[in-house]
Amino acid sequence: MKYATSSALTIAGTDPTGGAGIQADLKSFQEREVYGMSVVTSVVAQNTLGVQSIEHLSVSFIEKQLESVFNDIVPDVVKTGMIATPEMMEVVSHAIKSNHVPYVLDPVMVAKSGDHLMDKESRQTIREALVPLSTVITPNIPEAEELLEVSIQSTEDAEIAAKRIVEELGAQSAIVKGGHFAGDAIDILFDGKKIYKFPTERINTKHTHGTGCTYSAVIAAEIAKGKSIYESVAIAKQFITDAIRFSLEIGRGNGPTNHWGYRLQGVPENKTKEAN
Ligand SMILES: Nc1ncnc2c1ncn2[C@@H]1O[C@H](COP(=O)(O)OP(=O)(O)O)[C@@H](O)[C@H]1O
Ligand SMILES: Cc1ncc(COP(=O)(O)O)c(N)n1
Predict the structure, then answer these.
(1) Mean of the pLDDT values across residues 258-263?
(2) Ligand 1 center from residue 179 Cα (angstroms)
(3) Interface TM-score (ipTM) > 0.95
(4) Which residue has a Cα nearest atom 3 of ligand 2?
Protein backbone atom coordinates (compact mmCIF):
# COMPACT_ATOMS: atom_id res chain seq x y z
CA MET A 1 0.00 0.00 0.00
CA LYS A 2 1.29 3.48 -0.82
CA TYR A 3 0.47 6.58 1.17
CA ALA A 4 0.48 10.02 -0.46
CA THR A 5 1.96 12.85 1.55
CA SER A 6 3.36 16.34 1.06
CA SER A 7 7.09 16.88 1.40
CA ALA A 8 9.32 19.68 2.66
CA LEU A 9 13.05 20.33 2.34
CA THR A 10 15.00 22.36 4.88
CA ILE A 11 18.36 23.83 3.93
CA ALA A 12 20.03 24.94 7.17
CA GLY A 13 22.63 24.45 9.89
CA THR A 14 22.53 21.85 12.65
CA ASP A 15 21.95 21.79 16.40
CA PRO A 16 23.25 18.57 17.97
CA THR A 17 21.04 19.19 21.04
CA GLY A 18 18.00 19.13 18.77
CA GLY A 19 16.26 22.40 19.70
CA ALA A 20 17.05 24.60 16.70
CA GLY A 21 18.25 24.36 13.08
CA ILE A 22 17.67 21.31 10.91
CA GLN A 23 16.73 19.08 13.82
CA ALA A 24 13.92 21.45 14.91
CA ASP A 25 12.75 21.74 11.32
CA LEU A 26 12.50 17.98 10.80
CA LYS A 27 10.64 17.49 14.10
CA SER A 28 8.20 20.23 13.11
CA PHE A 29 7.59 18.72 9.65
CA GLN A 30 6.94 15.36 11.29
CA GLU A 31 4.45 16.86 13.78
CA ARG A 32 2.57 18.43 10.87
CA GLU A 33 2.60 15.08 9.00
CA VAL A 34 4.79 16.28 6.17
CA TYR A 35 7.68 14.18 4.86
CA GLY A 36 10.88 15.98 5.87
CA MET A 37 14.19 16.21 4.01
CA SER A 38 17.34 18.19 4.82
CA VAL A 39 20.44 19.67 3.21
CA VAL A 40 23.13 20.69 5.73
CA THR A 41 24.95 24.00 5.16
CA SER A 42 27.01 24.25 8.36
CA VAL A 43 27.61 21.89 11.24
CA VAL A 44 27.22 23.86 14.44
CA ALA A 45 28.54 22.72 17.81
CA GLN A 46 25.90 24.35 20.01
CA ASN A 47 23.62 23.63 22.93
CA THR A 48 21.13 25.42 25.16
CA LEU A 49 24.00 27.55 26.54
CA GLY A 50 25.18 28.93 23.20
CA VAL A 51 27.34 28.22 20.15
CA GLN A 52 30.73 26.64 20.80
CA SER A 53 32.04 26.19 17.24
CA ILE A 54 30.97 26.19 13.57
CA GLU A 55 32.25 24.27 10.53
CA HIS A 56 30.91 25.25 7.13
CA LEU A 57 30.47 22.56 4.50
CA SER A 58 32.09 23.40 1.16
CA VAL A 59 29.85 25.10 -1.38
CA SER A 60 30.44 22.24 -3.83
CA PHE A 61 29.27 19.70 -1.24
CA ILE A 62 26.14 21.72 -0.48
CA GLU A 63 25.51 21.74 -4.23
CA LYS A 64 25.93 17.94 -4.35
CA GLN A 65 23.37 17.48 -1.57
CA LEU A 66 20.93 19.78 -3.39
CA GLU A 67 21.40 17.74 -6.58
CA SER A 68 20.83 14.48 -4.68
CA VAL A 69 17.49 15.75 -3.46
CA PHE A 70 16.22 17.60 -6.55
CA ASN A 71 17.33 14.90 -9.03
CA ASP A 72 15.13 12.47 -7.16
CA ILE A 73 12.39 14.30 -5.26
CA VAL A 74 11.05 17.79 -5.91
CA PRO A 75 9.69 18.93 -2.53
CA ASP A 76 6.36 20.75 -2.18
CA VAL A 77 8.17 23.51 -0.29
CA VAL A 78 11.73 24.60 0.52
CA LYS A 79 12.61 26.28 3.78
CA THR A 80 15.99 27.87 4.46
CA GLY A 81 17.54 28.70 7.82
CA MET A 82 21.23 29.32 8.50
CA ILE A 83 23.12 30.07 5.27
CA ALA A 84 26.33 31.71 6.38
CA THR A 85 28.14 32.92 3.27
CA PRO A 86 27.29 34.69 -0.02
CA GLU A 87 28.62 31.69 -2.02
CA MET A 88 26.28 29.31 -0.20
CA MET A 89 23.38 31.69 -0.85
CA GLU A 90 24.13 31.69 -4.58
CA VAL A 91 23.91 27.87 -4.93
CA VAL A 92 20.75 27.73 -2.84
CA SER A 93 19.25 30.54 -4.93
CA HIS A 94 20.07 28.63 -8.12
CA ALA A 95 18.42 25.42 -6.85
CA ILE A 96 15.22 27.22 -5.81
CA LYS A 97 15.02 29.17 -9.08
CA SER A 98 15.55 26.08 -11.22
CA ASN A 99 12.86 24.08 -9.46
CA HIS A 100 10.04 26.64 -9.06
CA VAL A 101 9.04 25.56 -5.55
CA PRO A 102 7.30 27.65 -2.87
CA TYR A 103 10.01 29.03 -0.63
CA VAL A 104 9.96 29.99 3.08
CA LEU A 105 12.98 32.14 3.97
CA ASP A 106 13.94 32.36 7.65
CA PRO A 107 16.75 34.92 7.44
CA VAL A 108 18.76 33.51 10.36
CA MET A 109 21.47 36.01 11.33
CA VAL A 110 22.18 35.79 15.05
CA ALA A 111 21.28 32.98 17.51
CA LYS A 112 19.37 33.83 20.72
CA SER A 113 22.69 33.39 22.53
CA GLY A 114 24.06 36.34 20.50
CA ASP A 115 26.36 34.21 18.32
CA HIS A 116 26.57 35.22 14.66
CA LEU A 117 25.33 32.57 12.21
CA MET A 118 25.62 34.67 9.04
CA ASP A 119 28.68 36.60 7.82
CA LYS A 120 28.33 40.38 7.64
CA GLU A 121 29.11 40.38 3.92
CA SER A 122 26.10 38.13 3.26
CA ARG A 123 23.60 40.92 4.01
CA GLN A 124 23.58 42.24 0.47
CA THR A 125 23.48 38.75 -1.08
CA ILE A 126 20.50 37.65 1.01
CA ARG A 127 18.63 40.77 -0.15
CA GLU A 128 19.47 40.23 -3.81
CA ALA A 129 19.67 36.44 -4.27
CA LEU A 130 17.15 35.04 -1.78
CA VAL A 131 14.54 37.59 -0.65
CA PRO A 132 13.04 38.11 -4.16
CA LEU A 133 12.51 34.33 -4.49
CA SER A 134 10.65 33.97 -1.22
CA THR A 135 6.97 33.10 -1.01
CA VAL A 136 7.22 34.25 2.58
CA ILE A 137 10.09 35.63 4.64
CA THR A 138 10.02 35.42 8.47
CA PRO A 139 12.44 37.92 10.06
CA ASN A 140 12.49 38.66 13.78
CA ILE A 141 12.81 42.34 14.73
CA PRO A 142 16.65 42.54 14.59
CA GLU A 143 16.66 40.69 11.24
CA ALA A 144 14.04 43.03 9.75
CA GLU A 145 16.13 45.96 10.99
CA GLU A 146 19.22 44.52 9.27
CA LEU A 147 17.38 43.81 6.01
CA LEU A 148 16.00 47.35 5.78
CA GLU A 149 18.69 49.20 7.74
CA VAL A 150 16.08 50.86 9.93
CA SER A 151 15.17 50.83 13.60
CA ILE A 152 11.90 49.08 14.58
CA GLN A 153 10.49 50.22 17.92
CA SER A 154 6.76 49.56 17.71
CA THR A 155 4.08 47.40 16.09
CA GLU A 156 3.44 50.28 13.65
CA ASP A 157 7.14 50.23 12.67
CA ALA A 158 6.86 46.45 12.17
CA GLU A 159 3.87 46.95 9.83
CA ILE A 160 5.85 49.43 7.76
CA ALA A 161 8.81 47.03 7.71
CA ALA A 162 6.69 44.06 6.53
CA LYS A 163 5.29 46.21 3.69
CA ARG A 164 8.71 47.50 2.68
CA ILE A 165 10.21 43.98 2.61
CA VAL A 166 7.53 43.04 0.07
CA GLU A 167 7.32 46.25 -1.94
CA GLU A 168 11.01 47.22 -1.98
CA LEU A 169 12.95 43.98 -1.47
CA GLY A 170 10.61 41.80 -3.55
CA ALA A 171 9.40 39.07 -1.18
CA GLN A 172 5.89 37.80 -2.01
CA SER A 173 4.84 38.16 1.63
CA ALA A 174 6.58 38.98 4.92
CA ILE A 175 6.01 38.21 8.59
CA VAL A 176 7.81 40.40 11.08
CA LYS A 177 7.81 38.43 14.34
CA GLY A 178 7.17 40.15 17.63
CA GLY A 179 9.14 37.79 19.87
CA HIS A 180 11.76 40.43 20.65
CA PHE A 181 9.32 43.16 21.77
CA ALA A 182 7.96 43.61 25.29
CA GLY A 183 4.22 43.06 25.89
CA ASP A 184 2.11 40.71 23.79
CA ALA A 185 3.91 38.67 21.12
CA ILE A 186 2.36 40.21 17.99
CA ASP A 187 3.45 38.94 14.57
CA ILE A 188 2.69 41.12 11.54
CA LEU A 189 1.96 39.53 8.16
CA PHE A 190 1.79 41.51 4.93
CA ASP A 191 0.68 39.25 2.08
CA GLY A 192 1.13 41.81 -0.68
CA LYS A 193 -2.38 43.17 -0.22
CA LYS A 194 -3.27 43.35 3.43
CA ILE A 195 -1.73 43.55 6.88
CA TYR A 196 -2.78 40.84 9.35
CA LYS A 197 -1.90 40.81 13.05
CA PHE A 198 -1.36 37.61 15.01
CA PRO A 199 -1.29 38.52 18.71
CA THR A 200 -0.74 36.14 21.62
CA GLU A 201 0.08 36.76 25.26
CA ARG A 202 3.81 36.78 26.00
CA ILE A 203 4.78 33.65 27.91
CA ASN A 204 7.25 34.42 30.65
CA THR A 205 10.02 31.90 29.98
CA LYS A 206 13.70 31.71 29.09
CA HIS A 207 13.14 28.47 27.20
CA THR A 208 12.81 29.83 23.65
CA HIS A 209 15.75 28.14 21.91
CA GLY A 210 14.69 27.41 18.35
CA THR A 211 11.36 29.27 18.31
CA GLY A 212 12.08 30.94 14.96
CA CYS A 213 13.17 27.68 13.31
CA THR A 214 10.10 25.80 14.54
CA TYR A 215 7.69 28.58 13.55
CA SER A 216 8.99 28.89 9.99
CA ALA A 217 9.14 25.09 9.59
CA VAL A 218 5.45 24.79 10.52
CA ILE A 219 4.57 27.59 8.07
CA ALA A 220 6.51 25.66 5.40
CA ALA A 221 4.75 22.38 6.24
CA GLU A 222 1.32 23.98 5.88
CA ILE A 223 2.27 25.65 2.58
CA ALA A 224 3.42 22.20 1.38
CA LYS A 225 -0.11 20.94 2.05
CA GLY A 226 -1.53 23.74 -0.09
CA LYS A 227 -2.75 26.06 2.67
CA SER A 228 -2.74 29.83 2.10
CA ILE A 229 -0.07 32.00 3.69
CA TYR A 230 -2.63 33.37 6.16
CA GLU A 231 -3.84 29.89 7.22
CA SER A 232 -0.27 28.61 7.45
CA VAL A 233 0.78 31.47 9.73
CA ALA A 234 -2.34 31.05 11.89
CA ILE A 235 -1.55 27.35 12.41
CA ALA A 236 2.16 28.06 13.06
CA LYS A 237 1.36 30.80 15.58
CA GLN A 238 -0.86 28.44 17.58
CA PHE A 239 1.74 25.67 17.30
CA ILE A 240 4.65 27.85 18.50
CA THR A 241 2.61 29.34 21.36
CA ASP A 242 1.84 25.87 22.71
CA ALA A 243 5.44 24.78 22.05
CA ILE A 244 6.67 27.72 24.19
CA ARG A 245 3.94 27.32 26.84
CA PHE A 246 4.98 23.70 27.41
CA SER A 247 8.69 24.26 26.68
CA LEU A 248 11.10 21.60 27.85
CA GLU A 249 13.36 21.70 30.89
CA ILE A 250 16.25 20.14 29.04
CA GLY A 251 19.80 21.43 29.29
CA ARG A 252 21.42 24.03 31.52
CA GLY A 253 20.62 27.14 29.47
CA ASN A 254 17.70 28.30 27.34
CA GLY A 255 15.75 25.11 26.84
CA PRO A 256 14.03 24.04 23.61
CA THR A 257 10.38 24.40 22.71
CA ASN A 258 8.05 21.43 22.87
CA HIS A 259 7.07 20.19 19.42
CA TRP A 260 4.15 18.20 20.82
CA GLY A 261 3.07 21.05 23.11
CA TYR A 262 -0.26 21.45 21.30
CA ARG A 263 -1.13 17.89 22.26
CA LEU A 264 -0.79 18.76 25.96
CA GLN A 265 -3.86 21.00 26.09
CA GLY A 266 -6.15 19.48 28.68
CA VAL A 267 -3.46 17.21 30.15
CA PRO A 268 -3.72 17.17 33.99
CA GLU A 269 -1.68 19.76 35.94
CA ASN A 270 0.62 17.17 37.52
CA LYS A 271 1.78 16.06 34.05
CA THR A 272 2.62 19.54 32.78
CA LYS A 273 4.31 22.62 34.14
CA GLU A 274 3.71 26.17 33.01
CA ALA A 275 6.80 27.48 31.27
CA ASN A 276 9.29 29.08 33.61
N1 LIG B 1 7.90 34.63 25.15
C2 LIG B 1 7.09 34.42 24.11
N3 LIG B 1 5.76 34.23 24.31
C4 LIG B 1 4.93 33.99 23.26
N5 LIG B 1 5.34 33.96 21.99
C6 LIG B 1 6.64 34.15 21.73
C7 LIG B 1 7.59 34.39 22.77
N8 LIG B 1 8.84 34.52 22.19
C9 LIG B 1 8.66 34.36 20.87
N10 LIG B 1 7.35 34.15 20.58
C11 LIG B 1 6.78 33.86 19.24
O12 LIG B 1 7.59 32.85 18.67
C13 LIG B 1 7.71 33.03 17.27
C14 LIG B 1 9.18 33.16 16.90
O15 LIG B 1 9.57 34.50 17.16
P16 LIG B 1 11.00 34.98 17.62
O17 LIG B 1 11.34 34.37 18.94
O18 LIG B 1 10.97 36.46 17.53
O19 LIG B 1 11.92 34.36 16.49
P20 LIG B 1 13.48 34.11 16.44
O21 LIG B 1 13.72 32.77 17.09
O22 LIG B 1 13.77 34.14 15.00
O23 LIG B 1 14.14 35.22 17.21
C24 LIG B 1 6.84 34.25 16.96
O25 LIG B 1 5.54 33.80 16.64
C26 LIG B 1 6.86 35.02 18.26
O27 LIG B 1 5.76 35.90 18.39
C1 LIG C 1 21.71 26.06 13.09
C2 LIG C 1 20.89 27.09 13.75
N3 LIG C 1 19.97 27.76 13.02
C4 LIG C 1 19.21 28.70 13.62
C5 LIG C 1 19.36 29.00 14.96
C6 LIG C 1 18.52 30.09 15.57
O7 LIG C 1 17.79 29.66 16.65
P8 LIG C 1 16.77 30.61 17.40
O9 LIG C 1 15.43 30.40 16.75
O10 LIG C 1 16.78 30.18 18.84
O11 LIG C 1 17.24 32.02 17.25
C12 LIG C 1 20.33 28.27 15.69
N13 LIG C 1 20.53 28.50 17.01
N14 LIG C 1 21.08 27.34 15.05
Answers:
(1) 91
(2) 4
(3) yes
(4) 21
